[in-house]
Amino acid sequence: MFFAAALTICFCASAFAECPQTPVPMPKPMPPPTQSGCTPTGLHYAIYGTGEPLLAIHGLGASMYSWREFVMHQNTFPGYQIILIDLKGAGDSVKPDDDNYSILTQRDLVYQFIQERNLRHITLVGNSYGGAVSLLLAIHMCEHDRDRLSKLILIDSGGYNIDLPSHVKILRTPVIGWLAVHLIPPDCQADIVLKDAYYDKSKITKEQIKEYGRPIGLKGGRYALLKTGQQLIPKNIDEIIAQYPKINVPTLILWGLDDKVIPLKIGEMLHAAIPGSRLELINDAGHVPQEEMPAETICWMREFMGLPFTPCPK
User: Fold this and answer.
1) Helices 221-230 and 2-14 sit at what angle, rounded to 10 degrees?
2) pLDDT single digits (tens) 39-59
3) Which CATH architecture has domain 2-304?
4) Which of 124, 203, 210, 231 has the greatest number of CB atoms lying within 10 Å of its CB?
């Protein structure tokens, strides 16, 4: 009877949420974007302002909401257009019942978005899983489409198949991963992951937990999260890692000094692998410093991007 019930739950979770035809209201307190919509492949995006493109890619189980501090005020990055996007299966993007949630697929879908909008001179920003997607994009553009990429910013980025986060290990464990995703309520899942990600847990808000949990509770949300976690590590990961030295654009690596999800060792490995890269640490921050310590994160980014800044805290 248990497995019959499990199959019923699995079937329901396999239904997918279509990308809305009308603009999706941005979660509070994010302001309304200049434009928003869905790509032909079903990725939800929001664009703020005008200027050189700054494209930000979120982590596993997150959405464009994780970049809210970038768009809360005008001129956070003067002269830049802030482009936020939900990866396949995340946020308000499509969550189809298919077996194609690999990180290479995510790269291809984002690259297709870049081509559709003819984005050039991009400052590419990625956090955690989004950092790993950004690495794949950077490798591809440096080799095949060099004028599209200007700078790369990795924030507590994935990129190696060692020291995987505990929640990723759970998702990748047969049966256990399925049970965790389907039996634990979405808000509880969000609460657990955020507490792992934050150094100062008192900064986590109820609104934040609700917004992190919301996409998991959508039709297909649990299925998409599980599939994404299962397909996190490509089979040719060693070949991909060997290409990191080919990234030949200015690269900033930011790391929360108290990151317990992806250890600083990974940041140091990326710093050693990417020629000319900078590694800067953010004190009193865990895995998502753009949320936990936004002023410090923005300060380092502005310095790196050549924008006016006050001295960033060491």
Assistant:
1) 90
2) 999 999 999 999 999 999 999
3) 3-Layer(aba) Sandwich (3.40)
4) 124
